[in-house]
Amino acid sequence: MTSDLQRDLGLSATTAIAIGAMVGSGIFILPGIAYATAGPAVVAAYLIAGLLVLPAALSASEMATAMPEDGGSYVYVERGMGPLLGTIAGIGNWFMLSFKGALALIGGVPYLVYVAPGLAEYVVPIALALAIVFTVLNVVSTKSTGALQFAIVGVMILAMAYFVVGGFPSVEPAQTAGSFDLTSEGILAATGLVFVSYAGVIKVAAVAEEVKDPGTTIPRAMIGSLLVTTALYVLIVYVAIGVAPDLSTGGEFVPEGGEEVASIAYAAEAVLGELGALIIVLAALLALASTANAGLLSASRFPFAMARDGLVPGQFEQLHARFKTPALAVVVTGGVMMLMIATLPIEQVAKFGSAFQILVFILVNLAVIGFREGVVDDYDPEFVSPLYPWTQLVGMAGGLVVLTQMGTVPLAGAVAITIVAVGWYVFYARPRIEREGAARVGARENVSQRATGRTRELFDSDAKYDVLVAVTEETSADARRDMLRMATDMGRLRTTSVSVVEFVDVPHRVFAEDHPEVYAGTVPDWLPADSEDAPSWFPDGCSVSLPVRSSGGVEQRSVESQTDDVHVEYRRIDSEDHKQTIVDVATYGYSDLVIAERRQADFHERLFGGETDWLLRNAPCDVLLVDDNGFDGANEIAVVANRGAYDPLKLLFADAVAEETGAQLNLLQAIPENAPESQRESIERYHEELISILTVPARSTIIETDDETAGLTRFVGDADLLVTGVDRTGLSARLLGRPGNRLVDSVDTTAVMVQTHDGRRPGLVERFVMNHLFN
């Protein structure tokens, strides 16, 4: 990507931005609170948290070298997981960093009071003034911002190093006992609390487009800053608890309501005297200023990057003509921070972003998997995360564990930010964009490959196929004939045994032990008992015969009564409940497929469901429902993919009928009008693979429409046979209806609805994923 942004940030400035984004409240506020939770094991909590953040740092480093663009984690999540999750990551990060920047400015209150008590009443004006200064500085020059950040971080590290070196000889071993005890009570809660101390590590990627030699600089800065900060945190907290009697209280230096601040200052006073405390207070002030500056710099790049992708108004993408910085994005971000300082209880509001930071780390790790497994030809990072995918899986698992320790308020904040971002995406961004993430493309390709493999396996199988043609007294003569025709057509692709059973209802019987009675007297007139009288579509040399043993038992067939491909036999069964008997016959006869007539009225019995719905829910095998509209051969057969990939049985059945009729297959699939080009390309490749498996001529038709039923109806209208799916069964079908059923009702073509036994009851998650990937 070409850019007018200036690459002014070297390794030192980039590392300083990362350290400055991390060091702040994480060391000057949280240690005392975490100590109250886990005691001396707070040292181990900081170490564990740093290790859990490492996978996200490695993942972000890899993606930053492949896509050195401003926007950081937003860019990676958007490219890897799609615009919806990208919008959540972008808006969430922008809110979160704005909150943290405002908190850093307003959070200097107790420190200023400690140095100059008379400034307490001017805290808000001072914070606003600093926000203005940082905003102007970020507009004028990113290079100046990086230089200032380097200077601030340098002084801050020197001050903290002075505390560590000066205090280490005074550490009391008794007070640090258990510092690295991983079994200590409360260590998980403490880890969750201090986890946010490392949240700034991946923020340097937000300015990747302004970094010199990003392929080398960014991984070094990101991983190096994490290692330095982790070591700094561990050493400072270890020394602090070793020299202070109780780090959870600030002793006499605790200002009212400010116990969080005085913990490190109290420790410095205990070992270094008043001068040491003043140095630590200075370091704290610098750290908070650094956090505010880094937060403003990083936060402003999210609307800038999102504008380039069309997710927010394009004005945020514009660079200042002279300074070559995203001036509008910087000014708006700075203005939002000032508004928060002046109006909001910022200490409480800033907590809302804590859990969202963990979610971002999880999404960053997930995005790497999306890129690695997805279809991204130009994904070529200079730095590669080691131990893939275990590094990412450990990082995601650790993030989820930490989330459980975050408490209600942070989780509620993360949910609130997510809802706002989703709302923005639905109402603003979605109508304006046509693309998807690498993970979705890769997932669709994987689903297509698996579906293609299943289709090939079904077509290559030489196993015998047992078909039960279930005829009732209500089945029309035309439907009986067409059901038999379609059953025998299966024999053109594989050896098939067709059992035509006429189920006759009889009155209720008094004795419960009475069971259905099987008859095999004569073959009815509508069946071709003699091959010479059979219609042209009936298999050559085949006729309908009666079973040798009418009551069941071992199957016995004479050689004269069958062909190599198809054997057909007939019986009649009298019972009180023919639908239950159909299921029983299919179960104990080991049928692979039941062919029955589609009863349209049954599909509209929404509340309790009809006979057809019962059969679909209870059949032990695949089911074909035939809706006869005068089928008399075919020139074209439309095969519709209802829910994601094609079910192999649809294709096998349609191919068999086409073999008999000489028809051409038309593979029909509908996608939204604004579907990304990658979706169409994936489906085209999938259809090409299927066409190579079919034994008859076939073509592919991909329809762009927001009304799936209406769009498919236009193309199905010219076909002689429609093969579609049942889609839903059970309560969801009765309440929501079946899209495939609506399609069948809207055309005058003979239709066959296919339901496979394995795919009869897809779960909610599966239905959502399949619809999301393909539709």
From TrEMBL:
Gene Ontology molecular-function annotations: transmembrane transporter activity
Return the GO cellular component terms, semicolon-separated: plasma membrane
Tell whether Transmembrane helix is among the UniProt keywords: yes
| Membrane-spanning parts | 12-35, 41-58, 94-116, 122-140, 147-167, 187-208, 220-241, 275-299, 327-346, 352-371, 383-403, 409-428
- Indicate whether Cell membrane appears among the record's keywords: yes
Localization annotation: Cell membrane
What's in the keyword line of the UniProt record?
Answer: Cell membrane, Membrane, Transmembrane, Transmembrane helix
A Pfam family found in this protein is AA_permease_2
Entry's InterPro entries? AA/rel_permease1, APC_superfamily
Q: Per its UniProt record, what SUPFAM superfamilies does this chain match?
A: Adenine nucleotide alpha hydrolases-like (SSF52402)
How would you describe this protein's topology in the membrane? Multi-pass membrane protein
- Mind telling me which PANTHER family this protein's record contains? AMINO ACID TRANSPORTER-RELATED (PTHR42770), INNER MEMBRANE TRANSPORT PROTEIN YBAT (PTHR42770:SF11)
The name of this protein is Amino acid transporter
**Source taxonomy:** Archaea, Methanobacteriati, Methanobacteriota, Stenosarchaea group, Halobacteria
